Amino acid sequence: MRGTMVMLLPQRKVLGKLLRQLIVAYQPSLTSNHITGKAIDWAITWTDTPTFKNKKGEDVEITSEPKHGGKGITHNGNKNFHALGKTYGVIKASFTKTDGPHRSADGK
Questions:
Q1: Whole-angstrom Cα distance, residue 56 to residue 60?
Q2: Please, which residues have CB within 8 angstroms of residue 41's CB and are 6 or more apart in sequence?
Q3: Is position 74 within any domain?
Q4: Residue 45 included in any domain
């Protein structure tokens, strides 16, 4: 047990130092869709031309660019992919300029 504690001590110091350097861009919310299980931050990318089923069971091929669902503050992602998600009630965030991979039940 003592050997384990000695090995963890340097890692704890590094982690503490890292956490002190992090900056929180937006204060966390206790009423967000994430808390209620109705939102996810999910970065999605692809390299080929994927085919998905929409909610009606129809094949939807995503041939347009870009080949991602949203990558943070500079990229909103593929609009056709967002439309596909909407058929399931999954809405790309309305604040995509600040949270590219965010998807939720109401876009918030």
A1: 10
A2: 34, 99, 101, 102, 103
A3: yes
A4: yes
24, two tokens: 């929180």
| Residue 31 within a domain | no
Cβ(68)–Cβ(77) under 8 Å? yes
- For 91, the 3-state DSSP assignment is strand
Instruction: Note down the domain range covering 52.
Output: 37-108
Using one digit for the tens of pLDDT, what is the confidence trace for 19-48?
666 666 666 677 878 888 887 777 788 899
DSSP single-letter state for residue 66: P
pLDDT digits (tens, 9 = 90+) for 63-72: 999 898 877 6
How many domains does the chain fold into? 1
Q: Is residue 85 part of a domain?
A: yes
Residue 20 DSSP SS3: helix
The pLDDT value given to residue 59:
94
Looking at the predicted structure, is the pLDDT value of residue 4 above 50? no
